[in-house]
């Protein structure tokens, strides 16, 4: 540990102490050059300034003062001096990391927060900043000194949404020489000769197996390798003993395949072997015996266990409790909860009915962990932190906001809001009862008690007979037959002066999705799981640019997300001009976009006036020059006039 800590410190010293600048090519989205970095080294402080202080605390306090006044160069210089007097000054390192992150220097921010975690393993804020720093790009070289912090980040619940960091963590895993060798081996026709070695090496990759239990793996190379491993285990299941390394991989595979909804390719030989395995397991139960754990885990990597009428008879050793809970028990808990969720009104709208059917078949999004805010904000603090431009500031006085989540899906959104807003009362509605059951189970597991769930169509929400201080509707209106009709209902449910957060697809950013949807329509591909998986498999072999764009998207790597991305029953897309026109017609005032820090930084460089970030015309020009600006969707706040 001491050696790894020193490694990170050396990297920081190179940057912060020695006035040297490294070519930071670790992050593909980050280009650090000497000219970029040298500004952090230079300072307006005079050498005599340092003579005024005689303790690490004095330098630290002065640095904080500089930091608050946005004098970041001097802040770093004084934090450096504090660290020179107290080498393990955690707060000084932490604040340097925050400054580096704010300046877009993610390479050094990662190393800084690694130092903080090494010195203070329970510093949850450091894990948060480590997570948002690594998701900005990908690793190009091996970094063994980061592995411990990364593994802790994955293992600690409620610190991060693992989906956000999956790609970056996988890029770090793939720099490992052992994994590099395995990925080269995956195309070898004699892979079976090396399979035990492959499985052993994979089981030693703790970051990989942990990630497999949390979120879809967004990498085709690793997917192909695991597909071959899964197939080998199935075909040779009778010969495989309960060896710990094999069982470890089987457990990780079963969880990964459940999370990605059995997206991996399955050949006819495997389908036949599965039928034999199912019969073998059924026979064991009929004789009053428990099948070998390896048999259950093998089947669980191909099929949901809860579908079998004997699933409740399964009794796995304690080490596989997560399998029992995730693949069996949770399903029956959700089934019971579904009967407890109130229904506002039966759905009659045809498009709403089709959308509900989709999400009953494929609840979206599937998720395991989420970052919970341990110190929720008041509504006024949320408004200030979001830098919103209000036309009516009375809303800042509300201390216990009533919030409506219109389209909460599987609860990730509503739970996030519940942990962010202090003293909030939340009503979360959705069309899909299965999604709501998932949401309610997760809410109960996290001991959150300020959310009520209800099955409802947005078109019927006025029947609630109440208005809300805040309404959040992300990614729902564009799936309605008439988005403006839905938006009008939401506006009617909002109190005067209330705030609304809306998410809408961008016409410019979804060009590749439109091309794919047209392709699906022309080929008359249906929406069964088999058809969706087959089309996805064909995309990996095609060479058009929109196919490559699809593969880069996180949603490509689990069935529900992929269906939501390109097979949705209904989709509209918008332009900023249309958003401006709709806001005007509805009597809503634009309060600001929610964008990635890096995008906002680039926008401000080009638009320096104070109110430019609230000017939709400025954003229209910016998006036309940068079509992927709103690649996820437009997300923005507006206020009821």
Write a brief caption for the model.
With 641 residues, this protein is an alpha/beta fold.
3D architecture notes:
With 641 residues, the protein is of the alpha/beta class. It contains 30 helices and seven strands. It has helices spanning 2-17, 34-41, 47-50, 56-68, 72-85, 90-102, 106-119, 124-134, 147-155, 162-173, 177-185, 195-203, 206-212, 220-235, 244-259, 268-286, 293-300, 321-338, 350-361, 379-385, 412-420, 433-445, 483-492, 511-522, 529-539, 545-551, 559-566, 576-586, 597-606, 616-625; strands at 402-406, 425-430, 451-455, 468-474, 494-504, 588-593, 634-640. A seven-stranded mixed beta sheet has the order 3-2-1-4-5-7-6, sandwiched between helices. Helix 23 links the parallel strand 4 and strand 5. The longest helix is centred in the middle third of the chain and has 19 residues, at 268-286. The radius of gyration is 26 Å and the shape is globular. The model is unreliable at 17-45 (pLDDT under 50).
Q: Descriptors for this entry?
A:
about 650 residues, alpha/beta, 7-stranded mixed β-sheet, 30 helices, 7 strands, about 5% strand
Structural class: alpha/beta
Report, as a whole number of angstroms, the end-to-end distance.
57 Å
Question: Any low-confidence stretches, pLDDT <50, length ≥5?
Answer: 17-45
- Shape label: globular
Give the percentage of residues in beta strands.
Answer: 5-15%
**What is the residue-mean pLDDT, rounded to a whole number?**
90
Percent in helix: 40-55%
Radius of gyration: 26 Å
Q: Tell me the strand order in the biggest sheet.
A: 3-2-1-4-5-7-6
């Amino acid at each position: 540990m001491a050696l790894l800590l020193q490694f990170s410190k050396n990297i920081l010293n190179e940057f912060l102490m020695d006035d040297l600048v490294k070519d930071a090519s670790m992050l593909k989205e980050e280009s650090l050059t000497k000219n970029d970095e040298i500004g952090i080294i230079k300072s307006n402080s005079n050498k005599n300034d340092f003579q005024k202080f005689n303790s690490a605390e004095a330098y630290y306090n002065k640095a904080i003062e500089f930091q608050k006044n946005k004098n970041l160069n001097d802040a770093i210089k004084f934090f450096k001096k504090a660290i020179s007097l107290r080498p393990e000054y955690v707060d000084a390192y932490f604040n340097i990391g925050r400054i580096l992150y704010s300046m877009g220097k993610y390479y050094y921010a990662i190393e800084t927060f690694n130092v903080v975690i090494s010195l203070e393993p329970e510093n949850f804020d450091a894990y948060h900043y480590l997570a948002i720093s690594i998701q900005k790009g990908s690793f190009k070289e091996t970094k063994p000194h980061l592995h411990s912090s990364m593994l802790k980040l994955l293992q600690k619940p409620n610190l991060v949404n693992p989906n956000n960091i999956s790609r970056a963590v996988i890029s770090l895993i793939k720099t490992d020489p052992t994994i590099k060798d395995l990925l080269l081996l995956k195309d070898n026709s004699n892979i079976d000769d090396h399979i035990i070695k492959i499985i052993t090496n994979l089981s030693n990759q703790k970051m990989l197996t942990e990630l497999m239990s949390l979120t879809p793996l967004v990498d085709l190379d690793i997917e192909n390798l695991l597909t071959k491993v899964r197939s080998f285990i199935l075909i040779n299941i009778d010969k495989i003993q309960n060896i710990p390394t094999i069982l470890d991989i089987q457990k990780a595979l079963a969880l990964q395949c459940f999370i990605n909804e059995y997206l991996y390719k399955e050949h006819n030989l495997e389908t036949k072997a599965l039928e034999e395995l199912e019969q073998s397991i059924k026979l064991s139960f009929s004789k009053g015996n428990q099948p070998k754990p390896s048999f259950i885990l093998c089947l669980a990597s191909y099929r949901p266990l809860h579908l079998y009428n004997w699933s409740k008879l399964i009794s796995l050793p304690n080490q596989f409790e997560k399998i029992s809970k995730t693949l069996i028990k949770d399903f029956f808990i959700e089934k019971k909860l579904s009967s407890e969720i109130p229904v506002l009104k039966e759905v009659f709208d045809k498009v709403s009915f089709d959308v509900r059917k989709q999400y009953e078949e494929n609840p979206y999004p599937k998720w395991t962990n989420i970052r919970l805010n341990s110190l929720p904000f008041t509504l006024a603090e949320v408004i200030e932190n979001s830098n919103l431009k209000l036309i009516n500031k009375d809303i800042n006085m509300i201390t216990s906001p009533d919030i409506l989540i219109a389209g909460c899906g599987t609860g990730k959104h509503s739970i996030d809001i519940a942990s962010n807003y202090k003293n909030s009362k939340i009503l979360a509605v959705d069309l899909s009862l299965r999604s709501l059951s998932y949401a309610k189970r997760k809410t109960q597991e996290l001991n959150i008690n300020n959310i009520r769930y209800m099955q409802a169509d947005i078109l019927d929400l006025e029947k609630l007979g109440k208005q809300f201080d805040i309404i959040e509707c992300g990614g729902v209106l564009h799936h309605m037959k008439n988005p403006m009709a839905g938006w009008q209902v939401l506006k009617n449910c909002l109190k005067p002066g209330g705030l609304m957060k809306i998410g809408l697809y961008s016409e410019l950013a979804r060009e590749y999705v439109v091309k794919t949807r047209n392709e699906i329509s022309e080929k008359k591909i249906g929406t069964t799981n088999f058809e969706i998986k087959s089309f996805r498999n064909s995309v990996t072999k095609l060479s058009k640019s929109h196919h490559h764009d699809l593969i880069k998207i996180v949603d490509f790597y689990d069935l529900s997300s992929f269906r939501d991305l390109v097979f949705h029953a209904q989709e509209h897309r918008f332009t900023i001009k249309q958003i401006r026109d709709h806001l005007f017609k509805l009597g809503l005032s634009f309060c600001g976009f929610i964008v990635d820090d890096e995008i906002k930084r680039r926008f401000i460089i080009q638009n320096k006036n104070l109110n430019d970030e609230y000017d939709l015309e400025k954003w229209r020009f910016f998006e036309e020059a940068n079509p992927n600006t709103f690649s996820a969707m437009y997300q923005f706040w507006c206020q009821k006039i």
